[in-house]
Amino acid sequence: MADKRDYYEVLGVSKGAGEEDIKKAYRKLARQYHPDVNKAADAEDKFKEVKEAYDVLGDGQKRAMYDQYGHVDPNQGGGGFSGDFGGFGDIFDMFFGGGGGNRRDPNAPQRGSDLQYTMTIEFKEAAFGKETDITIPRTEQCDTCFGTGAKPGTKPDACSKCHGSGQEEVVQNTPFGRMVNRRACSSCQGRGKIIREKCGTCHGAGSMKKQRKIHVRIPAGAFDGAQLRMSGEGESGQRGGPGGDLYIIIRVKQHEFFQREEDDIYCEVPLTFAQAALGDEIEIPTLHDKVKLKIPAGTQTGTQFRLRGKGVPHLRGNGNGDQHVKVVIVTPTKLNDEQKEALREFANVSGEAPSGTHEGTFFDRMKRAFRGD
């Protein structure tokens, strides 16, 4: 189909990529575009596209067919390739033995699903770290039946129809001969077992939703968008399989005074005209404490000063970033008569009055600009 993207391109892997590389690429993209996490308008479509690509490339038989025929399903006479070979896989059964479809052992241990949790913290908590408890809902093994789904004192029976394999065979007579198609057992729904007496707590599911309290340590130097991985704290596994992982996404609130760029802190400090002209020593707030900053006489607005080591602690390593202080000279908006007279006298003494004759002053240059000189 012309409008379908190449499956390798969708997952961002090469045609020679191994099974593990394909699985890693799928997991990364699935988390990125999952509709519960990504609220973009096209996220759901991209998620479906990624899943379709993995359904094909993650299956050795389907991948081989895709590599040979692309999106064209030879079983459909040139129609669209859907990722499900159906009867075409049965031809392989007839000539080479084995069965099409999923042959995974239904009783094998299965890893639990990963979970994601978004945590919002304060600006300084990100800088210096934080320890806190969070509560998340997750699926855990039933404490009554210990995951079997059966009433205590009983146990599941092997399915008599599929003999515990979880699959049943459907025989079809076709022009090519006798075809055998394997599919999930209709009696046990692919589980390979039948629960005669279900657990009264989980009603046969073997698991149930619980509220889980987890202690989280956010390291000093964490930044907005940082991701913490807590191994095994996701959904519980099935049939003795390992638990999934919990991914905590950090969101950092903005600060009313400080701004952060990597591990450096930036801020603006107001100065009066007198402080800038005559010089002064002022007190500057930092993330760590308050420090004295000497302002040289004649400091211009926009001048920046660096306070070494007063920034954010490095996430991986020793030391801190720096704090950059930008001074901004504030022009007073309300002056009394005495202040106005003092400024006029200052302007006259400095030669900065509008009627002055100092051609080199800023005011003279500005007047010439207005005249178009």
Report what the structure shows.
- It is a single chain.
- The protein is α+β, with helices and mostly antiparallel strands and 373 residues long.
- Helices cover 24% and strands 26% of the residues.
- The chain has nine helices and 15 strands.
- It has a four-stranded mixed β-sheet with strand order 10-11-15-14. Strands 1-9-8 form a three-stranded mixed β-sheet. The protein has a two-stranded antiparallel sheet with strand order 2-7.
- Strand 4 and strand 5 form a beta hairpin.
- Helix 2 runs antiparallel to helix 3.
- The protein is elongated.
- The relative contact order is 0.10.
Structure described in brief:
24% of the residues lie in helices and 26% in strands. With 373 residues, it is α+β, with helices and mostly antiparallel strands.
Could you outline the blueprint of secondary structure elements for this entry?
Blueprint: H1 7-11, H2 19-33, H3 43-57, H4 60-69, H5 87-96, E1 115-121, H6 123-128, E2 130-141, E3 157-158, E4 167-174, E5 177-184, E6 193-194, E7 207-218, E8 227-230, E9 246-252, E10 259-261, E11 264-271, H7 273-278, E12 280-285, E13 290-295, E14 304-307, E15 323-329, H8 337-350, H9 362-371
Parallel strand pairs: 1-9, 11-15
Antiparallel strand pairs: 2-7, 3-6, 4-5, 8-9, 10-11, 12-13, 14-15
Overview features:
373 residues; 4-stranded mixed beta sheet; 15 strands; 26% strand; 9 helices; 3-stranded mixed beta sheet; single chain; alpha+beta
